[in-house]
Design goal:
Radius of gyration: 25 Å
Number of domains: 2
Largest sheet: 4 strands, antiparallel
Helix content: 40-55%
Number of helices: 4
Distance between the termini: 77 Å
Order of helices and strands: HHEHEEEHEE
Strand content: 15-25%
Oligomer: single chain
């Protein structure tokens, strides 16, 4: 008798498995749509106004004072940005799994490449040619949100590769900077590795024909 019911059991099991699979797919789809939401947008006219404000004032002053043709834009590949974000999340939670994604961020530092005659420190950076000398660039540094002594939440610079830079306990406002500086100045090669991202494509030296604004 039991053998006679085996095909029925098998069909019921397969139907149940199929329903479970479809439900999981539906839940995943709903979560994806929920996460996606509405994209951030800006009025193109506002973008152009802001870009023009920079070029006509800040950039013009830089070029005049330094006598250079400075970069006015930087682009990064999506793959590069995704990897950097994923690395921040992974190595942060490797140290402290309780840190939520909402506490993490990225600070963009305005920076500039050294002069061509001071390029010695960049010899190991094969991807960066001397045609980038003195050009404006960006350096991305991970940040970690922490409640400060005045009760407000601040985004502190930190190094996911160095647990001593994690603001796990209450600390003075200057301390994260001190810790990061100590990490980068250390003679130990391993501790000098600060997680950061730099060197997108700057224009110039790249052709401005690829820009919209």
């Amino acid at each position: 008798m039991e053998m006679q019911h085996l095909p029925t059991y098998a069909i019921v099991f397969l139907c149940g498995a199929l329903v479970y699979y479809l439900l999981q797919k539906l839940i995943d789809l709903m979560k994806t749509n929920e996460r996606r939401g509405r994209p951030n947008t800006m009025d193109p006219a506002i973008i152009q106004q802001m870009v023009d404000n920079y070029r006509n004032n800040h950039l013009a002053a830089i070029n005049k004072v330094l006598g250079i043709n400075d970069a006015h834009s930087v682009s990064f590949g999506l793959k590069t940005l995704k990897k950097f974000i994923a690395d921040i999340e992974f190595f942060t939670k490797k140290v402290n799994p309780r840190i939520a994604d909402g506490a993490l961020g990225i600070r963009f530092y305005y920076a500039a490449y050294p002069k061509e005659n001071e390029w010695n420190s960049f010899e190991d950076e094969k991807a960066i040619g001397k045609n980038y000398a003195q050009k404006h660039t960006l350096v991305m540094i991970p940040t970690l949100k922490k409640k400060s002594s005045d009760g407000s939440y601040q985004d502190y610079d930190f190094n996911p590769l160095d647990r001593s830079t994690f603001p796990i306990k209450e600390r003075e406002k200057e301390q994260p900077i001190t810790l990061m500086a100590m990490s980068s100045d250390s003679s130990d090669t391993q501790s000098r590795e600060v997680m950061a991202q730099n060197h997108g494509q700057t224009i110039p030296p790249a052709d401005s024909a690829i820009e919209t604004y």
